[in-house]
Design brief:
The chain is mostly beta strands and 443 residues long. Helix content is 12%, strand content 47%. It contains 5 helices and 29 strands. Strands 6-5-4-3-2-1-11-10-9-8-7 form an 11-stranded antiparallel β-sheet. Strands 13, 15, 16, 19, 20 and 21 form a 6-stranded mixed β-sheet that branches. The termini are far apart. The N terminus is likely disordered.
Length: 443
């Protein structure tokens, strides 16, 4: 469902981008002092920025939509010093009609420019992807939106999660709303799956150390003519801990079956198994010719899922048994060398096709030339039949004068005067009707 993808993107926004960055410094904040009042909001924000200075943080977040299409909670740990983050998310998602419901649990790890994620469903083990750029300190949601803050108010005298807190409440102007769309979805606002109508934020910080405690965001959203509100909250804690993450252990792909198990080159084959991953890797076929060094030919990918891959058998694969090999997007490989019972595909020779023959009158001993394709390099047979299917049927086999994949020359055997059906039989037992010739006498 589209909502699942959207909510996952928004979860990353909450879990990663809600952190107020060190770049949120006092000179910038001071430009937003309230006219005619104490500069409490900007002072709070400046002190929050100084307190953070790139320290690791753990964030617990929730997202709830007023129309019930998403109810998500998760937790993420972020270490800007080593460009690492790890998080989990669980949620219930519904489509806009409220009919289709999905329960999704996911886990993701980011180390530098590489990211791993796994979810249930669809499952399929870890999915690895290289990020378009190295992970930077938390996307500066607040600092990027700071210049769009309007109606800024100080919040004082509150207790948040047992700590005395001060805060700032602000609304984004229209330009800020559009900017936030691009931050959330990573694409221009004109192509975003949702349209934000308005955004209001509350940022709470402890009066003891001026680190953020809670960020609240209220969004009015339009999607497919539906208008609803999303309430998001992110709680902060566990300062100063580093992550020191390691890449997750990934399972090599396993192939259990092929369907179909035989056919000519160009056949569409489904490879069924497990741990293929979510992103396409690659598949090759190697002919089991008994000769070392047989080339591995790449197969065109038509569909890729964690438990099924649909490919096209390479056109240059010769007839006979062939073994597929699978490489996942994570670079994990599996093939016949890893499993003695690895399924094989039998490549059958393509059916012979006749495009013409000459002459139409062929006396005994004369040469009949047959043209076409897929005759094969090894000579087969050409047979002639008169009165076919009757008790008086007469059969004869011509003498092959020359044979190639596209042309056969055969000597007409002696037969009764009249018509005779001609059949071409390849060495791989493919049979095709050539046509009817007339014979009689001698050349």
């Amino acid at each position: 469902m589209a909502r699942v993808r959207i909510a996952h993107a928004k979860a990353l926004l909450l879990s990663v981008t809600m952190v107020v960055p060190a770049a949120f410094h006092a000179p910038v904040a001071s430009a937003y002092r309230l006219a005619g009042s104490r500069p409490v909001p900007t002072a709070v924000l400046a002190r929050v920025a100084r307190a953070m200075r790139g320290e690791p943080v753990r964030v617990t977040y929730t997202m709830r939509a007023s129309n019930g299409i998403e109810n998500v909670h998760g937790i993420v740990s972020y270490d800007p010093r080593d460009h690492e983050e790890e998080g989990t998310q669980t949620g219930v998602f519904r489509d806009l009609s409220g009919v289709t419901t999905a329960e999704i649990s996911s886990h993701f790890i980011v180390i530098g420019s590489r990211a791993w994620s796994e979810s249930t469903p669809p499952g399929g083990g870890w999915h690895v992807a290289r990020l378009p750029r190295a992970v930077r300190p938390p996307i500066p949601l607040v600092s990027e939106l700071l210049r769009f803050f309007v109606a800024v108010h100080a919040l004082t005298g509150h207790v948040v999660r047992g700590q005395k807190a001060v805060g700032v409440e602000a609304t984004l102007d229209p330009a800020g709303v559009k900017r936030m769309e691009s931050v959330i979805y990573g694409q221009p606002a004109t192509t975003a799956p949702q349209t934000l109508r308005s955004v209001r934020l509350k940022i709470w910080a402890s009066t003891a150390h001026y680190r953020p405690i809670l960020i609240e965001m209220m969004e009015a959203v339009t999607q497919e003519s539906h208008v609803y509100q999303i309430d998001e909250r992110a709680w902060y804690g566990d300062w100063g801990r580093g992550l020191k993450l390691s890449p997750p252990t990934e399972s090599a792909p396993e192939l259990s079956s092929l369907s179909p198990t035989q056919g000519p080159a160009g056949t569409v084959v489904t490879l069924s198994g497990s741990d293929f991953g979510l992103s396409p890797g690659r598949v090759t076929f190697t002919a089991n010719s008994g000769h070392a060094g047989a080339p591995a030919l790449a197969a065109a990918i038509r569909r890729w899922a964690p438990d099924a891959i649909e490919v096209v058998v390479p056109a240059d694969l010769p007839p006979g048994p062939a073994s597929p090999s699978i490489w996942t997007a994570a670079g994990l490989e599996a093939g016949p060398a890893s499993n003695a019972a690895w399924p094989q595909f039998f490549v059958t020779a393509p059916a012979p096709v006749v495009t013409g023959f000459s002459p139409s009158f062929v006396p005994a001993g004369a040469t009949l030339t047959i043209t076409g394709r897929n005759f094969g390099a090894t000579p087969g047979h050409v047979t002639f039949c008169q009165f076919c299917g009757t008790k008086a049927e007469i059969d004869a086999t011509g003498t092959i004068a020359s044979w190639s994949a596209t042309q056969v020359e055969v000597e007409m055997p002696g037969m009764q005067n009249g018509g005779a059906e001609v059949h071409l039989i390849t060495a791989s037992r493919g049979t095709v009707l050539v046509g009817t010739v007339f014979t009689g006498g001698s050349p």
